[in-house]
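pasting for the record
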Amino acid sequence: MVASMLKSGITAFADFKTALVPVAIFHLFRNIGRITFFRRGLDKKVLLVFALPSFLLGPLGARGVGN
């Protein structure tokens, strides 16, 4: 989301291809941060409490918004 806002702001001053470079750099550092955060592994309890319900109920919510 932040990267999309960054791209929108930069395209006001530069062309689209030039705006993609800082967005790509932002994504690179964000992914490095995720790898660092999860380097010890994933907690199975956290996955069950947060990831599983969001994975199962996400399509249901999207269907409700789409109509």
